[in-house]
Inverse folding.
């Protein structure tokens, strides 16, 4: 693990013929053709697939926007009926947010992050693939509702009761809830693996404070996805349960509260704005130093700003709800917090300014888009501060002023940086340079069209035009401004069309790019252009923030195999596993190869989604099981399985394979996933306490229906199981696997006892979950416990089986450590659940 | 080559900008003049008619001016940074400059602005709170897609109307709002901020009208297909007129009005047959699903703001309401003959106290 030992490898590698090495690595990493292309797990290919798919959805969302502007161009138009108009506006927002902005930026991160941190792939390649398929299928299911004229029509934030079955009896809301939840699987999987990749697979020596700023931004984005998406997933599941089965979580008469939906939605929805903005700001922070020809000033300030933004953004959600009648004190708090988020943003803006000021900036095409970003985003930020002021918010909330503000923040804060980034990285994608002329036309038309549309729209809002009305009377003074907005929006569309045309044409006509065409400082430009499937022939030691500025020859020495891991003879996909803080090499990560399982699992989940949509629940149940089998089969091909890494031999002096250690990336992935799960669980507890304390017609039985003794028995069983598990892990840590298999079966048995007792408590409680929200919430919590208990049993028993097969043991102790974390999680959440559902009501009473 | 290009482009930008300054100034003047002239309007926040709205409008203009300055300064700094300069600085000097930018622009500027804004804004918000001595209370309930308006404290008993709200001038009024089905939004832009009308809850907002006038209002929260056709006619009257207006809408007056003309008994029967299960007309029927029609003839509009009330309007509405207000909850009257509809319309128009 020491530098010396890896240097020996370097020297050994240096003797190999680079071309031979390249061919050998290609043999291992290269993409298959034909039908087998569906099995590809490579991050470069999947990143591009994400981005191309995102662009297609962007075009769909854009066409919907043009329909909206056509309808609003003049008063009293009947181009669209109100129902169709509501579908179109709802889908415009939904598609742009969930099917374009987030997946597009995820795709960029998936493509770029390993290249920037000197890795060969993301750390869970099959998860990348699963994420892509879930995104694609979910997106298709959701957009198909438009063709069926059954699209959701309650607005992109789906406020209930409008979206409930009483007021939206058709399938529109179901399309939204199920489709979005399906797509969220993709966001979550990307979030989890990006976090682990950034923390654990940076190249040798790249300490956290040496990593490119873009990686900091993406790390924050990914962590925010992990924490921010679960509340929406919970909300969507609850609302779908209310619609499908009649469990009254949000219905007042049943003891629910529609405002709970708003809390859950905006608990996700506000961080979401920063999930979109942070990667875009990351693009800006990457481009500005390159075009200013100097390092960014205040790297530490930017990191500070990123972290502060991440934290504050979870404390702002109520500012979307100032008009629902929130108590004054809470409003003052959220108002101040919302304004405070301007501080980290302003820090970044002035870091960028100072960097330009102290450098020698060049106004290349990408910088033009950066300039457009700056003007639009600052403007959006300023109106954002205005909106945080409660009395002003009360006036303009739900008017076109807010629509304008939101587009300034999202288009300015995401779309402009995205195009800047696409132009900047185009040579990497294609090996060709963008044109300057068509690109400039595209920029100016987009910029002027955008401001023409949305600057004016602020005014329309101030004149009192509410959002989401499909028509308006003449004589309000709105006519001319709406017409100007509509005309400008078509100018903007022409600009965007020109940009897309420019990008498409450049693949054919662009001038071939030279290596590192913009003279950038980060490692992605050490790739060949376009990059090879394994990114780098050899992985360098990087101890500076600007590897390519400090050593312009680095791309060449890397390609010649003069750095580490330039070995292909073992046939494994390998890269470094490094320390999350210091970047010291800890182990060699061997990655799984191409696989059908992600596609099959996603297909099964798509069938589940469609069956739920058409309410064939038996079929949905069957396919949940099938998807589960696929996923477990996928997890079977790990570690020392013949398809993974049966041989553990490494070059002398190199660290061991991760599957032979107890701290591989899977441990981290499980931990990050459990953070997401914990966020889901906390959102659930929030819902329970919220309904208990706030819901207008909450009804609680005098005596808790749950048997405390059964639940305590279940809790003792899961605790005992976890204790035995810990003992087994301690044994493995001391290289002992005596009684491992039997021990795992015992743990599984204890888990089964927990499941049985919990199920018994549930059965004995005799809940009527369609009558009161109290019972519905209780049922949901117990099912959560049952599901997790059952999952732990299955995974543990499978581990026992793997011990029998010889895949797990003292020499390969990795997997039980992963499963043990689930046990710890289950113990904690189960006792908290017992406390919240069964003990507190007894102590406090109804 | 590339170097030269970027400089050419840059100097182009500068040349163009200096040449265009006059033009831009001219456009700016026209635009500002145009916008100022365009401030008025039935629903314009910028044409306030009450203290709460006036505070917000003032804050808006201050925030706008300040924001414009910030935006212009940032943009100018940005463009100026592209100007080629031959300055050599030591690393220490660079650090110093950077720190001044970041602390000055990134921390001091936003913190100072936010403090000033909160100092200004929080008191303004107080004025919209139902604090202090009790005020006149008007209840407004949002339905898909119309407003029910109730005056619980009217002398002589509660008065109920729909889509037509009358309030006294020059005194604070507490609006207690709620939603009957989905969430609606209560908002009279010229008087002040909005508040959501939520099923199961009562939200309260305090507003005051300075002048006797008519104000536009419409639902602000997406509430289904009729959202764009959910208007509220708001009228402020001097106290005596307001009291008189309420007085004329007491149950017995309205009943007398509806049943006064004995010749209309046939029409009233038609009403009882076709309309009574949903609509109330004092003295005739007591349906409570649709709007109360007891004083419909005196209202300014029909269908929650879809049509102006004039002679023959009600009959037109009855015949074409699904075209005029698509998706509204009243069944189409294709099964009724035109004469009946005309007669019903004419009779309803007489219900004007």
């Amino acid at each position: 693990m020491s530098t010396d030992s890896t240097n020996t490898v370097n020297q050994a590698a240096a003797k190999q013929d680079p071309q031979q090495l390249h061919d050998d690595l290609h043999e291992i990493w290269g993409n298959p053709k034909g039908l087998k292309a569906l099995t590809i797990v490579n991050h470069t290919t999947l990143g591009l697939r994400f981005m191309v798919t995102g662009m297609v959805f962007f075009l769909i969302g854009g066409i919907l926007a043009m329909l909206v502007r056509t309808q609003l161009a003049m008063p009293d138009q009947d181009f669209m009926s109100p129902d169709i108009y509501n579908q179109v506006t709802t889908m415009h927002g939904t598609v742009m947010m969930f099917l374009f902005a987030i997946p597009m930026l995820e795709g960029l991160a998936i493509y770029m992050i390993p290249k920037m941190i000197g890795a060969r792939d993301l750390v869970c390649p099959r998860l990348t693939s699963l994420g892509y398929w879930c995104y694609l299928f979910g997106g298709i299911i959701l957009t198909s509702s438009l063709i069926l004229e059954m699209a959701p029509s309650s607005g992109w934030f789906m406020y209930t009761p409008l979206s409930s079955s009483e007021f939206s009896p058709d399938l529109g809301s179901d399309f939204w809830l199920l489709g979005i939840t399906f797509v969220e699987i993709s966001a979550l999987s990307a979030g989890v693996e990006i976090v682990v990749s950034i923390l654990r697979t940076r190249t040798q020596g790249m300490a956290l404070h040496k990593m490119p700023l873009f990686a900091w931004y993406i790390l924050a984005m990914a962590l925010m996805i992990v924490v921010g998406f679960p509340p929406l997933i919970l909300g969507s599941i609850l609302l779908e349960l209310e619609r499908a089965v009649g469990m009254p979580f949000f219905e007042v008469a049943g003891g629910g509260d529609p405002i709970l939906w708003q809390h859950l939605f905006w608990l996700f929805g506000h961080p979401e704005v920063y999930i979109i903005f942070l990667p875009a700001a990351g693009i800006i922070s990457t481009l500005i130093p390159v075009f200013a020809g100097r390092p960014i000033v205040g790297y530490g300030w930017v990191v500070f700003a990123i972290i502060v933004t991440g934290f504050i953004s979870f404390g702002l959600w109520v500012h979307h709800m100032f008009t629902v009648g929130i108590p004054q004190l809470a409003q003052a708090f959220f108002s101040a917090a919302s304004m405070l988020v301007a501080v980290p943003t302003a820090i970044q803006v002035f870091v960028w300014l100072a960097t330009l000021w102290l450098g020698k900036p060049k106004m290349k095409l990408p910088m033009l888009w950066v300039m457009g970003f700056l003007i639009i985003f600052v403007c959006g930020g300023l109106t954002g501060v205005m909106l945080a002021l409660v009395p002003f918010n009360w006036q303009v909330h739900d008017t076109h002023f807010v629509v304008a503000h939101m587009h300034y923040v999202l288009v300015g804060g995401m779309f402009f940086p995205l195009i800047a980034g696409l132009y900047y990285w185009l040579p990497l994608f294609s090996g060709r340079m963008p044109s300057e002329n068509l690109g400039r036309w595209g920029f100016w038309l987009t910029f002027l069209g955008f401001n023409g549309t949305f600057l004016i729209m602020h005014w329309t809002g101030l004149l009192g035009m509410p959002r989401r009305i499909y028509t308006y009377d003449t004589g309000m003074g709105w006519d001319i401004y709406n017409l100007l907005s509509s005309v400008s929006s078509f100018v903007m569309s022409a600009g965007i069309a020109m940009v897309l045309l420019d990008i498409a044409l450049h693949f054919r006509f662009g001038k071939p790019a030279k290596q590192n065409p913009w003279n950038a400082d980060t490692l992605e430009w050490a790739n060949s252009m376009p990059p090879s499937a394994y990114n780098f022939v050899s992985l360098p030691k990087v101890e500076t923030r600007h590897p390519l500025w400090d050593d312009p020859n680095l791309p060449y020495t890397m390609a010649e195999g003069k750095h580490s891991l330039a070995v292909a003879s073992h046939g494994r996909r390998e890269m470094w596993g490094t320390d999350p803080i210091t970047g010291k090499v800890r182990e060699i990560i061997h990655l799984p190869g191409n696989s059908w399982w992600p596609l099959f699992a996603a297909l099964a989940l798509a069938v589940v989604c469609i069956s739920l949509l058409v309410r064939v629940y038996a079929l949905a149940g069957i396919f949940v099981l099938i998807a589960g089998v696929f996923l477990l089969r996928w997890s079977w091909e790990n570690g020392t399985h013949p398809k993974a890494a049966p041989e553990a031999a490494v070059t002398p002096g190199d660290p061991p394979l991760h599957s032979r250690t107890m701290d591989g990336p899977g441990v981290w992935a499980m931990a990050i996933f459990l953070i997401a799960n914990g966020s889901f669980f906390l959102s659930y507890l929030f819902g329970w306490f919220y309904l208990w304390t706030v819901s207008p017609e909450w009804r609680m039985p005098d005596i808790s229906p749950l048997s405390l003794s059964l639940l305590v028995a279940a809790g003792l069983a899961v605790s005992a199981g976890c204790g035995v598990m810990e003992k087994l892990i301690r044994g493995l840590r001391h290289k002992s696997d005596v009684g491992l298999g039997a021990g795992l079966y015992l743990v599984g048995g204890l888990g089964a006892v927990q499941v049985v007792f919990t199920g018994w408590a549930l059965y004995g409680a005799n809940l009527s979950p369609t009558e009161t929200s109290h019972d519905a919430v209780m049922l949901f919590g117990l099912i959560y416990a049952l599901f997790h208990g059952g999952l732990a049993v299955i995974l543990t028993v499978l581990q026992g089986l793997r011990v029998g097969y010889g895949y797990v043991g003292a020499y390969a102790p990795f997997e039980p450590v992963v499963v043990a974390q689930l046990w710890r999680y289950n113990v904690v959440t189960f006792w908290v659940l017992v406390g919240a559902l069964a003990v507190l009501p007894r102590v406090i009473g109804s | 080559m590339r170097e030269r290009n970027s400089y050419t482009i840059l100097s182009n930008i500068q040349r163009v900008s200096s040449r265009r300054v006059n033009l831009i100034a001219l456009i700016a003047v026209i635009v500002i003049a145009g916008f100022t002239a365009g401030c008025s309007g039935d629903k314009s926040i910028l044409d306030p008619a009450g203290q709460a709205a006036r505070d917000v409008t003032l804050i808006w203009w201050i925030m706008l001016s300040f924001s414009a300055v910030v935006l212009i300064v940032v943009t100018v700094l940005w463009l100026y940074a592209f100007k080629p300069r031959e300055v050599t600085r030591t690393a220490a000097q660079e650090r110093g400059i950077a720190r001044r930018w970041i602390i000055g622009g990134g921390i001091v500027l936003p913190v100072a602005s936010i403090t000033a804004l909160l100092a200004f804004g929080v008191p303004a918000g107080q004025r919209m709170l139902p604090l202090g001595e009790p005020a006149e209370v008007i209840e407004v309930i949002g339905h898909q897609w119309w407003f029910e308006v109730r005056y619980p404290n009217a002398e002589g008993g509660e008065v109920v109307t729909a889509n037509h709200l009358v309030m006294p001038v020059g005194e604070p009024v507490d609006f207690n709002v709620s939603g009957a089905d989905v969430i609606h939004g209560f908002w009279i832009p010229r008087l002040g901020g909005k508040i959501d009308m939520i099923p199961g809850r009562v939200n309260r907002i305090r507003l005051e009208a300075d002048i006797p006038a008519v104000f536009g209002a419409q639902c602000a929260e997406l509430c289904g297909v009729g959202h764009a056709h959910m208007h509220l006619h708001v009228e402020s009257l001097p106290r005596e007129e307001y009291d008189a207006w309420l007085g004329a809408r007491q149950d017995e007056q309205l009943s007398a009005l509806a049943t006064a003309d004995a010749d209309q008994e046939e029409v009233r029967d038609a009403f009882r047959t076709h309309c009574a299960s949903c609509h109330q007309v004092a003295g005739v029927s007591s349906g409570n699903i649709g709007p109360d029609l007891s004083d419909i003839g005196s209202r300014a509009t029909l269908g929650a703001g879809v049509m102006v009330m004039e002679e023959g309007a009600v009959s037109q509405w009855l015949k074409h309401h699904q075209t005029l207000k698509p998706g509204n909850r009243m069944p189409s009257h294709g099964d009724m003959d035109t004469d009946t509809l005309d007669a019903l319309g004419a009779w309803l128009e007489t219900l004007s106290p």
